[in-house]
Amino acid sequence: MYIPKSFEENDLPELHAMMRRFNFATLINTNEGAIQATHIPFMLDETKGTYGMLRAHIARANPQWQEFNEGVEALVIFQGPHAYISPSWYEAHPSVPTWNYVAIHAYGIPRLLEGYDNLHPMLDSLVHKHEQHYPHPWAMDLPEDYMQNMVKGIVGIEIEITRLEGKYKLSQNRSEKDRRGVISALEGNLDPLVAEVSDIMKQREL
Question: CA 27, 107, 169 angle in degrees (round to 5)?
Fold first, then answer.
């Protein structure tokens, strides 16, 4: 990922927090020049390895898992908050439109996880993560034979992150007055992702 120095983010807890929040990511790998991509939720275990461990699962019918080459990196892209930036919010002119955003690229060599004992705990954790905020969380208390049959239809993936790139493009290349103009324009936007860009920018101005 192209990252000018002013947009580079290396704070590991910050990157991990963003990856957990926006965990529906894109898994990309290549095989003999062909690019494969799948959009799936990931679980992050920050206690494993230097940069953490990612775990996910894909449908067994999806051919992507069959095309992992031993020793070849895969890429997982996490897309955070983003917003269109109008030059009308700047003090300095002439200026052109741009886009502010947060993006994180995690690289590592995928390893397959198969078998009920490996996959069931991962699925249970994933369900708990996304159900816990609801008033009446659904528990994965499915009949054993049904669960066994469902697990047969998926393949687990584990990726120890060996490289982690964070890009926080948040008008750092503009003047303080221009940045404050952007913050003010985005603040309170009805789109929560747009409003969050303003929030992150404000935190970094303090």
Answer: 90
- Predicted structure pTM score: 0.95
Predicted confidence band of residue 33 (pLDDT cuts 50, 70, 90): confident
Q: Which of 123, 155, 166, 158 is nearest to 53 (CA)?
A: 158
Task: Count Cα neighbours of 97 within 13 Å in the Cβ-side half-sphere.
Answer: 5
From the list 89, 111, 193, the residue with the least C-alpha distance to 156 is: 111
73: number of Cβ within 10 Å: 15
Pairwise CA distance, residues 158 & 27, whole Å? 12
Of the candidates 35, 27, 30, the residue with the CA atom closest to the CA atom of residue 156? 27
> Beta-strand (E) ranges in the chain?
8-9, 24-31, 34-41, 43-45, 53-59, 74-85, 98-113, 154-169
Work out the mean pLDDT of the chain and round it to a whole number. 95
